[in-house]
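Before drawing any conclusions, I looked closely at one protein's amino acid sequence and its backbone structure tokens, quoted below without any editing.
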Amino acid sequence: MRKKRLLIFLSAICTILNVFSQENIIRFATQDDKNKIPQVNKGDLLITGANRSKNNKKIILLGDDFESKLTPGLKIFIKGGEYDEIWIECNASGTKNKPIIITNYDGQVKTRHLKIAGLRHFKLTGKYDPKAKNGNISYRGHDLGYAYSQGKYGIFIDNKWLNTSKFLLEITSKKIKGTESRQMSSDFELEYIESGNGGYSNIIKANNEQYISENIKIHDCYIHDTNGEGIYMGNTSIKGEQGIFKNVEIYNNRILRTGLDALQVVQTAGESKIHNNVLDGGMKWRSSFMDNQDFGASLSFVSGGVEFYNNIIINGGNALFQVFLEKENWYNHPGNSKEISVENNLFLYSRSGLGAYIGPYKANFEGLTLSISKNDFVATGFQYNKLHEDKDEARFMIIGGYAGQGTLKYNRWVKGKSKKDFFSTNFESAYSTEQNETSMIEQVVFENYSTNGYGFNFFEFWTDKLNIGKNKGKAVSYGPDDVVSWKSKIYLCIKSNSQVEPGIHSDWEKYWRLLKFNNGKSFYPADDVRVKKENLHFNLKRGIN
């Protein structure tokens, strides 16, 4: 009897110790912590490990209990390590001058999913910054060189191709306690985040809610090899009233080898700027879940005052980019400017041969005008007959799919074999076109977007069968010298084959050769997509700064 009581007593002690140890995992830094961890100040919030587990998954959760504790200027330090999920679900807020900082310490934070819900006035950063006391010196991202910087960012959302449907970074809304209302994350900055290797996309949205999420900066991030979009901001999949994204700036990002649109931003309002990004998307142009999902950039605006400039877009299925203007009925804040501007971008390689699609764009909608000017279009590399056997190369560089008002001027374009003209629309419109000239356009030369001699314009995701088009379900055949990207690695076809999955099929090495880079030390391309200084497009200030 005494032994049984003793065991019960010891079990209770162990349970108490476990509770205390769990509570100690997330704590406010003491003077002793400050002495041990150089960048930490007394009062910062330390997350020293996972505080939840589910099905053997390591999960970090900051939930309702922390809403009153996340105050302006607070720093949240997450200890380096591998986690399955990180959830910061708090309707808390910093301020404009004192945002809540979320960063890593003592190594790299690696997770398959990072969700932030309801938080406002915050900054998520994987940058090592000794002055600001952020990040870790061993994980400096591209600060020590863009080439082969995979896995070197302080915050790395790495799906490891465990699935192709889960979100990577997710920023969304959270229900306000005691009400039916929700608070959407707003006023935030994302920098030096690496994300990819499967999963679906990095998503910023909440479904069927009225909100204005504003003052958003996304810069110096490295997104690659996603099954869906690179960045998906807004909502196109569900009808009904949607949130608005206002005063957005997206710049200096590498978004490479995405299955669907490299960049999709919708319900976007002024004053917003998207500039100096390199976007290489549409890798699933033969195996998307539906047509019209494979653009370099898909843009939809609800007001004027939006600028899209100095970007380099590579690859696209239906087209290199599309521009829509669709009104959100509840939102009536057009801003100071009446113009939507697409200027000084370089557009390269379209599977269909089409550069851009405009529409639906209703005539004189709020008096807005669309200006497409000083861009270079090289929409060559027609391959769309591999998907649609009855398709020929697009006869126009830009097609207006709806009536609208705007100008298309001072653009240069490569006519190719079958182009009839620069612009066409079947609708009455108030577009003016002038001085759009056919021209030889200097090839862009990157510092090291290494492909072992195989042009990046031919990259696509491997697929066993067509998933769209009249021949949906038909097996895809590959021939010698075809190049595919599959699960973040690049393969060269060395023998004709069909439905031999590279790296997986038992006989794959008879048909595919895995390409290596960096003198055989890396399976991954260098992805240094800065433009060489002697190149024309550098002088035009295009691409990564």
Q: What stands out?
A: The helical segments are 2-25, 31-36, 536-539. Residues 2-25 form the longest helix (24 residues). The chain has three domains: 25-200, 265-450+530-545, 452-524. Residues 6-21 have pLDDT under 50 and may be disordered.
